[in-house]
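your task:
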Amino acid sequence: MQIRYIPKSGNFMGLIHTPFKNKDGMYIVSKDRFLENYIYVSTIEDAYSYLQQGLKIRMQYENNAPSLIKLSSLEITF
């Protein structure tokens, strides 16, 4: 499974964002930007199951700050 996000406007328009991994190699899903609501998962499949429940995933372009992106804005290939 591959998840990516390509913004349609703004400074990063057209640039491919990929799921962010923290220093422990975990993906982060959350309902909002607050640390206490972060859920850390080890696989992209686990992250996808949370996305289906309405949570968002942190996506990043190169070394820029990651952003929370909802499922309907993502491109997912299986």
Q: What stands out?
A: The chain has a mean pLDDT of 97. The first helix runs from residue 44 to 52. The chain has one domain: 2-7+18-77. Residues 2-7+18-77 form one domain.
